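debug: dumping io for the single-chain case to check the tokenizer round-trip. Nothing else runs in this session.
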Amino acid sequence: MIVRTPPMGFNTWNTFGDKIDEKLILESADAMVATGLKDAGYTYLVIDDCWSEYERDPETGRIVPEPKKFPHGMRAVSDYVHSKGLKFGMYSCDGVRTCADYPGSYDHEFLDAQTFADYGVDYLKYDNCNRPVSAHQQTLYRRMGMALRATGRDIVFSACNWGQENVWSWIRSTGAHLYRSTGDIFDTPESYREIARSQMTHLDASAPGCFNDMDMLTVGMYGKGLVGATGCSDADYRSQFSLWCLFSCPLMLGCDIRAMNEATKALVMNKELIAIDQDPEARPPIFLQREDETDRIYAFKFLADGDYALGVYNFSEDDKDMIVLFNDTGLPAAAGYAFSLTNVFDGSDGGVHREHLRVRVPAHDCVVYRVRLVKP
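debug: decoded output
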């Protein structure tokens, strides 16, 4: 199995869009090592759209890198990334043209897959723009899945169809290792919340080998870059990052990793949150909120070692006293057990609680606990 836990890394799109070049990729590779991201588990460095010439090479039919952006060629970039102990990722599309109007892989899947393998690619993000109306989307993803396998190289297949055609119901059959389940994220509170809410009923198909991908993270962008929009607060970034972890989503950073502040570094390298995301069983959480609680989320997740994770999210504009009723998790009061809580953000002891937990959560913020079942 190529992917046993959700992939972690960095993708260029959210911050840089078409403003990519060799210098940026090499500097980002250096930053992934120097900041400690690599040691924390972020190993994939992925170049998104806009890396190629506008047309294929007329002699070979291959997609070729734009020489002003990548003067030494893509293999040299790949070799540098690999020399840092990282893995290298690139982008294509199942249509005739990519989303930014560069050559897509439609009808060239096997040639392009071999081209990527020749570059030393370890990860392919495969988008869904400019696909002929007559083309069957599921067939096109199967075709690229087969083409990647034919290269003989282990390449993570990131299918990016934006949640169309109930993708969670069929994507595992294509050989994909992760699947975009939503539209594009933007750096606003409304965007990450809408995305998270949209997948609360679609996490059952996500499992080791093929993970639900809710798009690249905007954590640490603060309104900068291509999808910067209004930006978010540190409280929102805590909520976004921990939701992705509780949902067992890929953790692909989208901020400029060369310029992360200390708050961003501490959050994205939080060992306890990463452990929840990388839990080997990747079980989906259950959700405990009542129907009228549209401005909050309570998520409870079984972990492989016998512990649990509990996330309490306040999406409102006011601080809230929030109550978790343990019976909803499956723990009745008569069981003779209680929950012992440890705050994953600061390691503080959250106490031992029976029947319920009442916690004050600031506006836009969250509290996340690692939970152990104990006899009080």
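debug: round-trip ok. The domain at 286-374 is CATH 2.60.40.1180 (Immunoglobulin-like).
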